[in-house]
Amino acid sequence: MAWLTGLLSATLLALNTLACFVPILPLALLKLAVPTPGVRRRVDPWLNAIATGWISRNSRWITRLQPEIWDVQVNSDLRLDDWYLVNCNHQSWVDIFVLQRVLNKRIPLLKFFLKQQLLYVPVIGLAWWALDFPFMKRYSKAQLRRNPALGRKDQETARRACEKFKLVPTSVMVFAEGTRFSPARRQTQSSPYRNLLKPRAGALATTLNAMGTQFRSMIDATIIYPDGVPSFWHLASGRAGRIVVRIRQITIPDNFCGADYASDKAFRSAFHHWLADQWKAKDDEIDAVMQDQRP
């Protein structure tokens, strides 16, 4: 009956999304017509509340499908009325549902950096725009070599998004690896980590440059799938396997807040070392959990 469970779950997700889109649409049009900070301060909490309700309803059916699979440790006090920078490893689109379930109503709504093409996804694209999710263009290394200004365009997009985030408590979410982990990508990268790709510092550093002093801390999230990385269909049909999540807060060094990653070589070097230390600890933690979770 897994296919029937999956079909029902996907239908519930679609209905939940459409139901939330109805109240989002007029609020989005209001933001578009009157793009002032005063309107944003009043409208954004309503939009965030609608999105939080969407996540809560999704989380209920996700949890009921496999209530026994979750192993979550949150070793920190978290607040809804503050700002956080969230960093996580990335293996599957299931990661987003997992993070939303674990952090929903513990911290402000997660705001992700998205590919520019996702803006044109029916219904959801407009909702993401209304919620101020930043849309970033992806450039190849060859394109950036030919035209370095393209990279600065994305940095400016991130800075503009962060200026909006300052108005209402927000959690800025970054997958530092930049793409989903796979053994093939790890080999292509010659990654020094056993379970991770090399972290890309640019998005994190740009976010810190724009609003670092406003963040209460950085939340380091580690997601582990001891039974194998699930797809959305596995999750929807109740066959995701065990899901392990470890959440910890990390203090952001004061000298990282407001520093210019592009022009400050000393900061760039220090930031790379700081992020590499975290990635090494995350890699070791994944190994330890996989060892403990063996059947």
CATH class descriptor = Alpha Beta
Instruction: Round the mean pLDDT to the nearest integer and report it.
Output: 88
Number of helical segments with 4 or more residues:
10
Strand content: 5-15%
Low-confidence stretches: none
Task: Estimate the global geometry from the Cα principal axes.
Answer: globular
Described by strand count, sense and barrel closure, the largest sheet is: 6 strands, mixed
- Write the CATH architecture name: 3-Layer(aba) Sandwich
Quickly count the domains: 1
Terminal Cα separation, in Å? 25 Å
- Given the helix and strand composition, which structural class is it? alpha/beta
Q: Can you write the helix and strand succession as a string?
A: HHEEHEEHEHHEHHEHEH
Q: In percent, how helical is the residue content?
A: 40-55%
How is the largest sheet built, in terms of strand order?
1-8-7-2-6-3
Radius of gyration: 19 Å
Question: What report would you give on this structure?
Answer:
With 295 residues, the protein is an alpha/beta fold. It has one domain: Glycerol-3-phosphate (1)-acyltransferase (3-Layer(aba) Sandwich), CATH 3.40.1130. Helix content is 51%, strand content 13%. It is built from ten helices and eight strands. The chain has helices at residues 2-33, 37-65, 94-103, 124-130, 141-146, 149-165, 183-189, 202-211, 232-236, 265-292; strands at 70-74, 84-88, 110-112, 114-115, 135-136, 171-174, 217-224, 243-250. The strands form two sheets. A six-stranded mixed sheet has the order 1-8-7-2-6-3, sandwiched between helices. α4 (124-130) links the parallel β4 and β5. α1 (2-33) runs antiparallel to α2 (37-65). The protein starts with a helix and ends with a helix.
